[in-house]
Amino acid sequence: MDRSAQLQQWLESTLGHATFRLTSASNDASFRRYLRIHFDDGRASLVVMDAPPAQEDCRPYVRVAALFAAAGVHVPEIHAQDLTAGFLLLSDLGDTTYLKALDESSADRLYGDALDALLRIQCASRPGTLPEYGRELLLRELMLFPDWYCARQLGRELNAAQRQALETSFTVLLGNNLGQPKVYVHRDYHSRNLMLAQPNPGILDFQDAVYGPITYDLVSLLRDAYIAWPEERVLDWCARYWERARRAGLPVAADFAEFYRDFELMGAQRQLKVLGIFARLCWRDGKDGYLRDQPLVMRYLRRACERYRELAPLARLLDELDPQAKTLGYTF
Fold first, then answer.
1. Is the distance from CB of 99 to CB of 178 less than 8 angstroms?
2. Are residues 265 and 187 in the same domain?
């Protein structure tokens, strides 16, 4: 039985005598797919996750959904599950992402709600509950940049001096990242995974959550690969988060300048990772649309490299890899 027939059979068994039709609910960068279930009798729609067990495991999704729900944030309710087959029946958080809803007039309100939810998740954090976002994983993510962006996308083999520059920069970033206090980390807390919902926001795509650096999800949100804001506005949102985190007893740096440096260096790690992931999605998985989002990610990275002396070797390497990029300039 093929996958679609297996899914149809499971839904008919799970939903009883209800008649329904399926439409695509969202595109995903993984092997998962999400389908919206429309009922002929007019009842509220549901969403089914189809996660082929050979490539995906639904158990982390179920575990993190329970953790985040207990923290008081809005995640899909799981109505039925078949973990062996890789099917989950979920409540429907709608189809309006933050990316669709954000504009000049709504940004402060929507980011305020997103920061509220992030603080709830972080305040609920407990060690030993989620996998550690440790050195091995952080470094494996960084290696996506030379392996996929440099070698596969640019077709560049780094010389000895360039490899040394990259290694030196990785050491700086990992030293900072691993030195940050640890909390629950969603790992993709951005405008495509936050939904306009009641209560707001609805949070999706959290199955890869880990226990790691406190600034990571803030970076995902405010240095979003899909939408950019003026630097002064990002700085204001960062400061609002920092003030509220301190009041909530979260272990952020006592000095805002130190906290912002942590934010920027965590951002550089994520931006190197994302450049590599987008290259891999194109060249391995045939999803070339992600290449359109690389220039914004590179602008974030270059600007951080220009601000911090310890990232000067990385700045020079980026110039060598793409000499024209620096002359183009950038605005937000």
1. no
2. yes
